[in-house]
Amino acid sequence: MLNIVVLVSGGGTNLQALLDAKAAGQIPNGEFVRVISSAAGAYALERAKNAGIQGVVVERKGRTAEEFETALLAELEAAKADLIVLAGFMTILSEKIIEKYPEKIINVHPALIPSFCGKGFYGLKVHEAALEKGVKVTGATVHFVNEIPDGGRIIAQKAVDVLDGDTPEILQRRVMEQAEWKILPAAVAKLCEERK
Ligand code: GAR
Q1: For a substitution probing ligand 1, which of 176, 178, 188 has the most ligand atoms within 8 Å of its CB?
Q2: pTM greater than 0.90
């Protein structure tokens, strides 16, 4: 059984997809032991609480990246994390943490990497860029986290159509529903099965 820690910063719909998959018996070899939020008041913390999972705030605001990562590392170690899932986590991690968890940190990105990714491409901005470019297909990617933002080995991808009249919000929702909420739980289940 792998100890899974989920890192969040906001609404936590991807966290919810993971918790729903666990409740449905689709992640038999993983246990969600902690949800860590980089922002106090993130709705993701409510979702953790409702599922009976310990939620912790490691505030990013008001401290240096170094201080933040020292506090985050302490929480990850306390949770005995085997697998760390970035699910709507809006901070780029430095080597200090990444080198301690090689191929043990995964991220979901709301585009088909290598499109619309890297520094500055997060959340709604990704979908704004896709619409601006006029692509007809976008999607989501689950990948390992290494020292290059959105640059680690790709685990899974799913394509989603862009439709006439899409706004960034509409496209974001479609990418979540059709891609992110499916490929993230599936990738977690697969990794847990392989590493149990
Ligand atoms: C999701 O679309 C996720 O892929 C994206 O932010 C949203 C978070 O939603 N993540 C990134 O852009 C990370 N670079 P959620 O809090 O409802 O899961």
Answers
A1: 176
A2: yes
